[in-house]
Amino acid sequence: MIEAVGLTKRYGDKTAVYNLSFQVRPGAVTGFLGPNGSGKSTTMRMILGLDNPTAGHVTIGGHPYRRLPNAARHVGALLDAKAVHGGRSARNHLLSLAQLSGIPARRVDEVLGVVGLQDVARRRSKGFSLGMGQRLGIAAALLGDPQVLLFDEPVNGLDPEGIHWVRNLMKALAAEGRTVFVSSHLMSEMALTADHLIVIGRGQLLSDMSVKDFISANSADFARVRTPDTEPQLREKLTSALTEVGGNVLPEQDGALRVTGLPLPRISDIAHDTGVRLWELSPHQASLEEAYMRMTQGAVDYRSTDDRKAGLQQPLPPGAQPPMPVPGQGQPDWYAPPPPQQGGRPFAAPQGAPGQAPAGPYGAQAAPGAGPGGQQAANPYAAQQPPAAPGAPQPPEAPAAAPAQPSGAPAPLPASAPVTDPTKPEDAR
Amino acid sequence: MSTPQHPMPQAAPEWQGASGSPYPTYTSPIPVVRTNLVHAIASEWTKIKSVRSTIWTLGVFVLLVVGIGLLTAGVVASSSSDLAGESPLSLGFFGLLLGSMCVITLGVLTTATEYGTGMIRTTMTACPSRGRVLAAKAIVFFLVAFVVTLVSSTLVALAQVTMLEGNGAANPTGEEWLKATVGVSLYIALLGLLSLAVGSVIRHSAGAITIMIGVLLAPLVMALFMFSDSLRRVQEALFEYSIPNQMSIFYANSLSDSGPSGWDPLWIALGVAAAVFAGAFALLERRDV
């Protein structure tokens, strides 16, 4: 059991972690998520007593880490795979750690076998690949057969077999009743491994809930209903019928309806009862990755942008076509915005598919839903202004009745809506 | 997991039993021992002997001390010069003076490398009693440095006395023997210990080595350029307390007649090392790793 209360860490005038409170319980894998520089590693270091918090405190099993008798037998940690002396062999590295905490030397060979490094045990760790280093770090964490395990980005550099292994290892360790705390910035990885999620951004708690709750709180499940295009009155009819029974109906760009709050069979029944034919009735769900990105969008410190090579390019000969930008550059608008602004495209559809033809000289860079691409300004720099990023691609007439902020909201705002949700399930704990 | 599986220790929250945790807990089948300084020393011994820099620095040290010692003795012996009752042991001085650089380097590396590689975080996680780790490092390093210096300086001294018998050298007294072997070895080891503490404070190998070489040479070099009369006393003090001069006192061939004498250098080195260590301990406890 790890318990942090009001944890704050400042480095000079930079606040790395601010007022962070959470609990990590035994018997479950708890994922610790956040963008780069959000304070995950700083928090881990404070848990392990390496860094002293500026304010607040964190305890493991009721004790501050540095007060634990024989801490290595209670807590195992993988902080940094390369935090070893490269000139020392894997075995000697582990042996020195084992001796430090009075662990029999036999255990060293045992954990080397567990992580699969027995064949290179006597080789200097300098020559290890990132994945091998990661395995060595995991071996060090497992060495004391501890009750609490902390892993900072354990799958970095691992091959698919290794990733699979780590995933199962975490689950197995948690199933034995241990506390497993794993940091990652890969939501997709956590979705498969973790039972519980703690999400931070800019050093502050964004969410603390089970993966299940996280999904339902953050990924807007909805049904897409399409009535025959030829008879718009059917659409109105169905809309009012669905709203009557408590459904939340939003019209989409292409005439479909987005229905939330009603299960699919119920929608079908109502349509049948009201005598409306349906052309489409399909379930949609945002992936956890998208939910996470939307949540942390406003809290990303290091954001990549387009590589425009401004001022460095030769003037194009008249009539020449500039190369088409690779979709995916310039992240801000790469993440899926909240569902209702999507302009009628399935939420989970790949964004900015190459098919979206560029319009301006540089094309509509990485614009998701750049359907009406023509409205993209011809000046490539026009799209560079950050506030335009999430909203600009949406046509101005996008329905404003969205649960999330309508277009035109500056970049940080979309995050604020989901941020408030997480507080709810906290009581449910 | 390869550990033998207990039947799920659902109701065995031994460790945090007092808190009455409602959650399942895991209890390791490997017995938990209370650790102490001896464990840390064993660990540091494994560390120091399992890196090549130890072999290299100590190898070069032995080479310098023994090589230069034998070379000077050989040159003096073959030149048929008369030592006129001088102690032959004093010829060991030059080798040790150069060799002390190696001990300084190893001392710094013992602590600073852990910061350079990030190993310190692994170490301090495994043993949050930071003072214990530093103490273990100091003990292990001191013993290694002392033993290696003692063995090589004794070897050189024996060789020199044998080789220079025909050159009118005096037969060294018991105290001269003691000072030229045990005394100077303790001094060199303390010098290394000082470097180890400086390495722990500076946390950067190159920086700490530079500082220590400065400490070793700067006073002497500065004194060489103090021609002004008004600085005469400062110059003298710098000469007398410079590390090379303090070392030469163990061979009774001091550069000056006043200043430290006898076993004084040892007490000075001990005092300085203790002071820097106190600082290193305090900083280690307070700073973030």
What does this structure look like?
The complex is a heterodimer of chains A (429) and B (289). Among the domains of chain A are: 2-217, P-loop containing nucleotide triphosphate hydrolases (Rossmann fold); 222-284, Alpha-Beta Plaits (2-Layer Sandwich). Chain A is of the alpha/beta class and 429 residues long. In chain A, the strands form three sheets. Chain A has a six-stranded mixed beta sheet with strand order 5-6-7-3-8-9, sandwiched between helices. Chain A has helices at residues 40-47, 71-74, 90-100, 106-115, 130-142, 160-175, 187-193, 211-218, 232-244, 264-274, 288-296, 388-391, 413-420, 423-428, and strands at 2-11, 14-24, 28-33, 55-60, 75-78, 148-152, 179-184, 196-201, 204-210, 222-226, 248-251, 257-260, 280-284. In chain A, helix 3 crosses helix 4 (106-115), helix 4 (106-115) crosses helix 5 (130-142) and helix 9 (232-244) packs across helix 10. In chain B, 46% of the residues are buried. Chain B folds into two domains: 1-32, no CATH class; 36-286, no CATH class. Chain B has 289 residues and is an all-alpha fold.
Record field, number of beta strands of chain B: 0
Overall shape of chain B: globular
Report the sheet with the most strands of chain A, covering strand number, pairing sense and barrel closure.
6 strands, mixed
Helix and strand run of chain A: EEEHEHEHHHEHEHEEHEHEEHEHHHH
Mean residue pLDDT of chain B: 87
Mind telling me the C-alpha Rg of chain A?
26 Å
Largest sheet of chain B: none
Tell me which oligomeric state these chains represent: heterodimer
Tally of contiguous helical segments of chain A:
14
Region (Disordered) (chain B): 1-20
Transmembrane segments (chain B): 55-77, 89-112, 133-157, 177-199, 206-227, 266-284
Protein name (chain B): ABC transporter permease
Keywords (chain B): Membrane, Transmembrane, Transmembrane helix
